[in-house]
Specification:
Blueprint (H helix, E strand, L loop, with lengths): L2 H20 L14 H8 L7 H4 L2 E2 L3 H12 L9 H11 E2 L5 E3 L10 H4 L4 H17 E4 L1 H5 L13 E2 L10 H13 L3 H18 L19 H12 L2 H21 L1 E6 L2 E6 L13 H7 L5 H16 L28 E2 L1 H20 L3 H22 E2 L4 E2 L2 E2 L4 E2 L9 H4 L6 H14 L26 H8 L3
Antiparallel strand pairs: 1-2, 3-4, 4-5, 6-7, 8-11, 9-10, 11-12
The structure holds 2-acetamido-2-deoxy-beta-D-glucopyranose (6 copies).
Length: about 475
């Protein structure tokens, strides 16, 4: 082949890939925190143990100045590596260490002896509960006013009220984690802190139209399992605060509409069409906070395959199960599929649809409580449609349980996950024998034979949402199932 031909071939490929690439927006528009050459250079230089470190650093000058200085630094060295020490000097001049966006904050509604403690008789459990209750004081964070006044200097998203954070590398608020945090706060009689956290989520829905994965701009184009309506339900049960309910409902409906407009899919089974939900994040490029993990995984892939991978990894993060063999698809055998074979958006998940079902039922109840009969009817109808769809697509009458449905194979994924029982927890079933059969399934699965909790799956893939890990949200959903 002549060099002339090579050029033409590569030109055609370039145009094709450039178009495929250009279709998808980056995780956020920041050319420092979400996309661009500075992010790429710093992350691939691996200056820190965790890629999250850099994208949590505060800017010491405006983004324009930092980007111009970086342009000056790289001018004329486009395709040479910039040494780590030059990059480090650059970061020292223009960035401050992570954590500058928070003040320590002790919740004012914390008190020594909430009622639940006095009900615990076992001394070992009692002491453990006391320790847990004390944790609220060390995990409270308040965002500084500077984040509100100068958002361009931070990746932190401003929210008006203090929060309880998960801790460790997770130094900001997270969406579905907060459901269990809020339940704990209610048990600890800390309703003000709980209300503040819920108000933050309502504020985020107001700003984004949905709740982002967490409190950073690099999470702002993906969500997490939609627990906000259930947070409000639990808060309302604890406080009977009808004015708060009235105030919250419009944001809950807006979030619901986001999931129905942007995360739904039509599934055809036996000639009948059903509307169900899936995780789906049409956003390109590596996740900024795990940049080199994503880039390394994509090594040797074509540009089109890379983009597919980046999309599906983000959908996996949106599911909360990042990552799990549960989302492995494609045409590989489940035993030799790896994270490269992630196809999250091709699955119709049992737990997401159970949660949407619970949201529909709960929104109907809220409207009923508030005297909005027409709106209550609307959500009751949605709930009834969901019951039908969950039964038709996810319920397996032979095995007596619900399974994720694969849109690649048009069939169920028969593997065991605690999420197979999520419709029980969410009361999203219409026949009492389903409850009995699902419990039989759980016993027969062998998953109850592990002394330290029900494992996330029975397949040891090396991913953290798989065997042998047992995650507390999944235990709680199983325990609370009727
Ligand atoms: C970048 O270089 C130009 C030209 O040398 C200079 O005027 C400008 O101040 C530099 N900008 C920064 C932020 O260092
Ligand atoms: C380096 O970049 C220049 C233009 O920026 C380009 O012409 C040249 O081919 C590049 N060299 C390599 C080795 O990629
Ligand atoms: C949802 O999808 C619509 C297009 O169907 C789009 O205009 C809108 O921006 C999306 N909403 C969000 C919050 O991503
Ligand atoms: C995957 O594993 C199956 C056996 O479970 C084997 O037959 C197949 O060849 C393997 N495929 C690859 C690509 O390794
Ligand atoms: C639920 O079951 C009842 C009685 O079996 C039936 O009347 C109703 O139509 C069912 N609803 C759905 C959504 O299947
Ligand atoms: C799955 O079903 C869809 C539509 O019902 C169809 O277009 C597709 O070809 C089917 N795929 C397989 C693998 O059967």
């Amino acid at each position: 082949m002549s060099s002339h031909n090579v050029d033409r071939v590569s030109l055609v490929f370039c145009i094709f890939f450039a178009q495929a690439y250009a279709l998808l927006p980056p995780p956020c528009d920041s050319e420092i925190y979400c996309t661009g050459e500075l992010l790429r250079r710093v992350q691939t230089a691996k200056l820190f143990n965790d890629d999250k470190h850099f994208v949590d650093m505060k800017l010491l000058a405006s983004p324009d100045v930092v980007l111009e200085a970086f342009h000056n630094l790289t001018f004329g060295v486009q395709n040479q590596t910039i040494t780590s020490s030059i990059l480090k000097d650059f970061l020292t001049r223009f960035f401050d260490a992570p954590g500058k966006e928070f003040e320590t904050w002790t919740p004012a509604d914390w008190h020594e002896q909430p009622q639940f403690l006095s009900k615990i008789k076992d001394p070992k459990l009692y002491n453990w509960a006391v320790d847990l209750h004390r944790l609220w004081k060390s995990l409270g964070r308040k965002i500084t006013m500077d984040v509100k006044d100068h958002p361009e200097l931070y990746s932190q998203i401003y929210t008006p009220n203090p929060v309880i954070v998960p801790g460790g590398r997770f130094r900001e608020l997270y969406y579905w984690d907060s459901y269990w945090i809020i339940n704990g706060l209610l048990l600890s009689e800390m309703t003000d802190t709980a209300q503040g956290m819920i108000n933050n989520f309502l504020y985020l829905v107001d700003r984004y139209g949905f709740v982002p994965n967490g409190g950073r701009i690099y999470y702002e184009r993906r969500s997490q399992p939609p627990f906000l309506t259930v947070m409000v339900r639990d808060y309302f049960r604890a406080t009977k605060d009808i004015n708060f309910l009235k105030k919250a409902v419009p944001a809950l409906e807006r979030e619901y509409n986001f999931w129905m407009q942007n995360r739904s899919i039509i599934v055809e089974v036996d000639g009948n069409k059903h509307i169900l939900n899936h995780y789906n994040v049409q956003i390109g490029q590596p996740r900024p906070e795990s940049y080199t993990d994503d880039l390394d995984l994509a090594e040797h892939m074509s540009e089109v395959e890379k983009e597919r991978l980046f999309v599906e990894l983000k959908a996996g993060a949106e599911s909360g199960w990042d990552f799990s063999s549960r989302w492995f698809g494609g045409n590989k055998d489940s035993n030799n599929a790896t994270l490269k074979d992630i196809y999250t958006s091709s699955f119709v998940p049992t737990d997401l649809n159970a949660l949407m079902c619970l949201n529909e039922h709960t929104l109907a109840q809220f409207h009923h409580e508030l005297g909005n009969d027409a709106a209550a009817q609307h959500y009751s109808k949605a709930y009834n449609n969901r019951l039908k769809a969950v039964e038709a697509v996810l319920w397996n009458s032979e095995k007596g349980v619900w399974f994720d449905y694969s849109l690649q194979t048009n069939s169920s994924n028969f593997a065991f996950y605690p999420s197979n029982l999520a419709p029980l927890w969410a009361h999203c079933f219409n026949h009492s024998d389903m409850q009995l059969r699902a419990f039989e399934y759980l016993k027969d699965s062998g998953a109850l034979n592990y002394p330290h909790g029900v494992p996330t799956s029975l397949h040891n893939s090396g991913e953290q949402w798989d065997m042998p890990n047992a995650w507390s949200p999944l235990q709680q959903m199983l325990i609370q199932a009727p």
